[in-house]
Fold this sequence. Notes:
The chain is α+β, with helices and mostly antiparallel strands. The protein has eight helices and five strands. It has helices at 5-26, 37-74, 91-153, 159-183, 186-191, 193-208, 225-246, 282-293; strands spanning 211-216, 250-257, 263-270, 297-302, 308-315.
Amino acid sequence: MEISLFWRVCLVNAAVFAVGLAVLAMSPATVSTPILPSEVLVLLGGLGLLVLANAALVRATLAPLYRLQHLMEDVDLLRPGQRLPEKGNGPVGDVIRTFNAMLARLEAERATSTGRALAAQEDERRRVAQELHDEVGQSLTAVLLGLRRVADRAPADLASEISIAQETARASLDEVRQVVRRLRPGVLDDLGLCSALTSLLSAHARLTGAAVRRTFSPSLPPLDPETELVIYRVAQEALTNIARHAGAGRLLAELIPTADGEAVLLRIADDGRGMDGSGEGAGVRGMRERALLVGATLDISTSDAGGTDVRLLVPTHAREARS
Length: 323
């Protein structure tokens, strides 16, 4: 028969009081009427000992609840696996087991809902990218062709103005194409993950002037499209953060299998300003949410050069190979 927490505390108190009563009954101490100052000191000392003993025993009884409280304050569903050890069979153990089961359920539900949200986001990105390519891109291309025909027939004094209009339209078309590539990486679908990452790094080098060193293993295991997209998006967000905040002059990018072949490691490290300790923003939390979709772990720390070191470890087991 299990004893409730209430009765456990009551029994602890009763045991402490019983011991105190037994000690008092067997001791030669007496209490005078009126009470003497020396007897008051003895009684206060005994009361203090009883209170300390009672506090220590009650604290030991409630210690699992304190650990549960601390975990509840620190738990983050984007860092799965946080659990309390399930010790004991009493009510405290039942609470801990229930809490651990609740965490597992919330993590599963969070992963499912995040997967649906990100899938919907990718579908919307694909739709917007297609519309930009088909509508805006084609319209700007038609404008460029029209300006070229006008330039052939226009008088010489209008040539410079038409040339400026052509350059503006051409720059706008290039910007639309860049937006399309950011929304939906066509190179990822057409040429594969390594080519898509190479394109990202080349664009980053042109934008920031940073020296980029990359190492992509030729013996990567086959990855399904969802996993490749997660790796690409995490790399894209990491490079965006570096371009916006780091001011890095050098950058290292690696995509290699682990020694046991059970996972693939994406690493992006820079020599910039590093993390300022202000907490994780929406971009980093988005990276963590994507990592959860494929059972990956994301670690962000300080690099050897003093900047930021982003490591995404993606398990390859239970993944279907691409045909």
